[in-house]
Amino acid sequence: MAEDAADLHVPVMVEEVINCLQPDSAGVYVDGTLGLGGHSQAILEYTAPSGRVIGFEWDREAAAFATDRLRGFGDRLQVVRSSYADMVAELKTMGIDGVDGVLVDLGVSSLQFDRGERGFSFQTDAPLDMRMNLDAEMTAADIVAKADVGELADIFYHYGEERQARRIARYICEARGQEPVRTTFQLAELVKKAVPRRFHPDRIHVATKVFQALRIAVNRELDNLVRLLDEAPKILRQGASFCVISFHSLEDRIVKQAFRNSERLQVLSNKPVEPGVEEVRLNPRARSARLRKAIKV
Ligand SMILES: C[S@@+](CC[C@H](N)C(=O)[O-])C[C@H]1O[C@@H](n2cnc3c(N)ncnc32)[C@H](O)[C@@H]1O
Fold this sequence. Notes:
By secondary structure, this protein is an alpha/beta fold. It contains 14 helices and 7 strands. The longest helix has 15 residues, at 221-235.
């Protein structure tokens, strides 16, 4: 994989993440979403010469890329090919029963999204896959093929907040009887046809929310997030920071409530940290990022 994949994914709110974690050279930090390693690199640089990062990443392409890219840090970085939801068990098997900070940067990396072949985007025609973890069994095409109208409508409504959910679900179920829906372009076209022109949104593609919803369903993103929010406080040392960057309101709401309801965590501000104007100008993907922080008590 070429080094340009790292240029492709610019990590968001790096300065804010360092401010949030306040990492030091004696600490062990978990990056729950290693991705291409941007945030881990920043933590490793900041905690030189001896701070450690354990990076979780379930996408084998991303894990391989980050491992190679950050090899200069030697054994200060350990990469775990597993879900962040299993963080506590994985760390325990490594003999680690306390860490000095946990970061997760939710969502997809540019490696997954911008390279059309993984099927996350309606901009490129590709198999309708959307698995971040390529070892997982169920793809977006499987869901579209097997779910009934009610199940599909629930996915589009709950995970995409798509108001035309039922109409789109019905249309897809009728269409798949004639021809299986195997590609991103097929699905985008079906959504376009299902939604009457007057309901097409002005600023985003009409299939945006359906694609987001399917991605969340395929990767069980909200279930994993809920598990993480329950698990991570168990492994944080007293006074350690838990930082979560989310990219849409569904995730942010879950994080906000879990932080507020946890007896193990203290929240210093109810307002999330947002990226600065200059960062958004340079990296439009950062626009919707929201960073929430809690401290282990
Ligand atoms: C937004 S990217 C992270 C980018 C990273 N912070 C960087 O600077 O390059 C999110 C990454 O988290 C990974 N991911 C998502 N859910 C995960 C999970 N449950 N367990 C492990 N990795 C996950 C995705 O595969 C993706 O590579």
